[in-house]
């Protein structure tokens, strides 16, 4: 916020300015001024075009209000009568016309300054530069930032701040804010915050038309505003065209908002105030608060993009698109002006047809003091564009604006907010200052308290010292008294010694009594102490005992834990062994099945062969077969099934249930002992007898490779006893590790497994024997068999014998394996 204190001289106001400062709000027509500025010819124009030399088409008549535009200006000037009729010549009257040589300063002073400064009184104002491309709009609005070529914007900024600092009213306070935006291709963007684009234009009662999200920058000096403008200019869309090397391709609007706050002054006696001073009633509200006046003025400094004829500028591609957009928005502007100046009943004003007209709604026919500066070029090539610009400006002349002071009594006004904030901060500062004072006082008080404490301590120490001295003195005094007493008593006894005194019976008795008393006291005390000591000793012993007990318990716990661990490990091992045994058992079953199948096929082959032998009248030597089969042929002893019984074909892989197998496990192969096989329908058949048993078929699985049951080393003292063939054993050591239930369970499982194995062995034996017997029978009686089968070839009988021998070896090996696994 700017206070008013400076040595700057107040800005001089142009006497022939377009606005009369004293005229207040002025008439509606006074609030919209149109001026024309003709720029000097450019070098390019002076060189002429083609064969035609440069020709000036514009002239300003004296009085600076009329402009003549003619295709043959010289003829007009020379007043060649009818010749002028041959050429197009136009005369327009405006609020002011500036010729080619008019300096920037004059344009500003006459056409802009009053408008600009009116914002300090709370008016809205606008200066709009309109014209064909390359005619000097940007030059007029911006120009140079320094020197005589400074345009309207830099001069405006200077004047605003000069005015503020020269305001004679000491209670006036100002807040100046600035924004800078562009409309490029119908998109509104913030030139001071490039990331903010596609901004929306809104309107409300308090702010009028405004751009939502547009950044506003509080500025306190012209330099700050220049900084913003330069930043914005660097981002503004420009491009080189045929008519202008640096052509603005966007409409740019520099916004300056000034809030002015004035506080009424107290009246003095000289003012005629009652009681010789105080506030006027009008200056104070109902709550006794002084009413401040806040005025808000907004200035739009608009540099439009230039209209252009595309065939003249030769725009293509992106430039062409830009041109179309520029022309479209300028055409919308023309439509708005046409609607505003329509003499008929006020018709609809198409502000919303383009972003530009929407944004300039206040400036065109609204609450605003507006100056439109129409720029034209003087050359003959620009004649048509100059004519259309002058016609446009001439129409705009009729726009009527209703400007009024924007006095804001709304508490939301920024200036008020700042004031409130300032007040709050001042209060805060005062409060904190008070706090600082309070804290200092507290520190002093604390210091004093500490000192007092130290003093008190010193006083106490001194007192204690004095008490000790007093006691010492008292002791000494007492000792002295005793001494005197003793001396006196000696005196009383007439100078006799103490030994003499003790010889007096009464004294002796008294001394004895006293001595006894002392003795009793000390004896009692010693006794009590002794009792206490004994008590303590007893406690100590007890504690010791507890300690020992606890140590023992800990050792026991450790031992038990170790044993438990050991037992767990052993159980795991046993479990693993049982698993391995299971696998091995399944392997044996598989082997058994395989061999059984092989035997069947061999038997079939033998049967077929025997039939062939009969046909050839030659049989196998039974003795040779007998010797090849060895024990197998001998042990079957004619007990097997009759030839052709086809028993083997009925065999399937089998297993015996533990319960059922138990009965079969009691003996090996032999008469009277059951030999169980399963028939295809699942019935168990005892190969030794006809009765059926309760057994169930089980599927064989893959055999385990190198399993051997694990057996513990034999016990040295003979206490450990073998529990079975599966390696489970028990003894005193294990008994303390595995529970009896678990051991019994394991033992039962081992027993069952052994029985199963034994049963399997028996089955294998019996099956082999049955089949061999069948084969032998067929081979040794080839004729009978041949007769039964219709004859056959016996040429491969020796081969058959060889295979049988091999089979026998295999079977033997399997049996051995079963046997060895059983015995470990
Ligand atoms: N009054 C003047 N005095 C001297 N030179 C001028 C004047 N007006 C314009 N010029 C020069 O004319 C050229 C074009 O001016 P300027 O760029 O301001 O035109 P413009 O109307 O803004 O163009 P556009 O619409 O393409 O942006 C510039 O080189 C500028 O310096």
TrEMBL record:
<feature type="compositionally biased region" description="Polar residues">
    <location>
        <begin position="727"/>
        <end position="736"/>
    </location>
</feature>
<keyword id="KW-0067">ATP-binding</keyword>
<dbReference type="InterPro" id="IPR019821">
    <property type="entry name" value="Kinesin_motor_CS"/>
</dbReference>
<dbReference type="GO" id="GO:0005524">
    <property type="term" value="F:ATP binding"/>
</dbReference>
<feature type="region of interest" description="Disordered">
    <location>
        <begin position="688"/>
        <end position="739"/>
    </location>
</feature>
<dbReference type="InterPro" id="IPR036961">
    <property type="entry name" value="Kinesin_motor_dom_sf"/>
</dbReference>
<dbReference type="GO" id="GO:0007018">
    <property type="term" value="P:microtubule-based movement"/>
</dbReference>
<feature type="coiled-coil region">
    <location>
        <begin position="408"/>
        <end position="435"/>
    </location>
</feature>
<dbReference type="GO" id="GO:0008017">
    <property type="term" value="F:microtubule binding"/>
</dbReference>
<feature type="coiled-coil region">
    <location>
        <begin position="460"/>
        <end position="605"/>
    </location>
</feature>
<dbReference type="InterPro" id="IPR027417">
    <property type="entry name" value="P-loop_NTPase"/>
</dbReference>
<feature type="binding site">
    <location>
        <begin position="131"/>
        <end position="138"/>
    </location>
    <ligand>
        <name>ATP</name>
    </ligand>
</feature>
<comment type="similarity">
    <text>Belongs to the TRAFAC class myosin-kinesin ATPase superfamily. Kinesin family.</text>
</comment>
<protein>
    <recommendedName>
        <fullName>Kinesin-like protein</fullName>
    </recommendedName>
</protein>
<dbReference type="InterPro" id="IPR027640">
    <property type="entry name" value="Kinesin-like_fam"/>
</dbReference>
<dbReference type="GO" id="GO:0003777">
    <property type="term" value="F:microtubule motor activity"/>
</dbReference>
<feature type="region of interest" description="Disordered">
    <location>
        <begin position="1"/>
        <end position="25"/>
    </location>
</feature>
<feature type="domain" description="Kinesin motor">
    <location>
        <begin position="31"/>
        <end position="399"/>
    </location>
</feature>
<dbReference type="InterPro" id="IPR001752">
    <property type="entry name" value="Kinesin_motor_dom"/>
</dbReference>
<keyword id="KW-0547">Nucleotide-binding</keyword>
<dbReference type="GO" id="GO:0005874">
    <property type="term" value="C:microtubule"/>
</dbReference>
<keyword id="KW-0493">Microtubule</keyword>
<dbReference type="Pfam" id="PF00225">
    <property type="entry name" value="Kinesin"/>
</dbReference>
<keyword id="KW-0505">Motor protein</keyword>
<keyword id="KW-0175">Coiled coil</keyword>
